[in-house]
Amino acid sequence: MDFLKIKYYIILLVLIISIIFILDYRMNDTGKLSKDAIGKSAQNSQTELATFAGGCFWCMEPPYDDLPGVISTSVGYTGGKTPNPTYEEVSTGKTGHVEAVQIVFDSSKISYWDLLQVFWRNIDPTNPFGQFADYGSQYRTAIFYHNQQQRELAIQSKDSLIASGKFDKPIATEIIPYIKFYPAEEYHQEYYKKHPLRYNSYKVGSGRTGFLEEKWGNEEK
Questions:
Q1: Which of 3, 78, 88, 176 lies at 20 to 30 Å from 58 by C-alpha?
Q2: Mean pLDDT across the stretch 194-216?
Q3: Same domain, 123 and 151
Q4: What is the CA radius of gyration of the chain?
């Protein structure tokens, strides 16, 4: 009887040890898989930023918001030296900032080149003093590149536009290294959704809509 009890306890102990071993192995294996998955996900992440100045920033969000691969857009101020500028300060033209749109995009779904083409088709690149009804240095057009590849693509796209003969005046849009972007006040974000009537009236009244339709027609979007 004592022998049977001992045998029973030995078998039970072996089973317990086996279960602990199996559980420990699975936990370690799962941990390794999780790390591998995280690493793979990080490698596949291709989120990038693009920053463009195209005059009144209200008009520069809509062309990008519904594009596949665009994650988000925001409007703000960039290119100047005044930290944390307000709309009123930028409007004086003394901060060095321009009104701009910043785009977060997945480069595996939409290329920076494609974003550049949308940019050119939504501005008057020949005006060095502003855009349409808006005059002042804060409304000048510019491409703010975030890395060397963006710089090269921006130059190529500008050269391509010049070669196309679409415009009979010099292209005034600057290509500038990106430094810092200051998001604009909340009431400016997605203004076209918050105040669609005001937005459409402004876009038409400023002359932007007519100019883009004349130059690009259905290519505007």
A1: 176
A2: 96
A3: yes
A4: 28
**In angstroms, rounded to a whole number, what is the distance separating the alpha carbons of residues 81 and 60?**
23
| Inter-helix orientation angle 196-205/208-216, to 10° | 70
CA separation, residue 78 to residues 26, 42, 51, 90 (Å): 51, 29, 9, 10
Q: Is-catalytic flag, 59?
A: no
| pLDDT tens digits, one per residue of 106-150 | 999 999 999 999 999 999 999 999 999 999 999 999 999 999 999
Count the domains in the chain: 2
Same domain as 187, residue 122:
yes
Q: Which among 56, 90, 118, 142 is annotated as catalytic?
A: 56
Q: Per-residue pLDDT for 218 more than 90?
A: no
Q: Name the token pair of 106.
A: 């997945």
Q: What percent of the chain has pLDDT over 70?
A: 78
Q: Are residues 68 and 171 in the same domain?
A: yes
Let me know whether 27 and 118 are in one domain: no
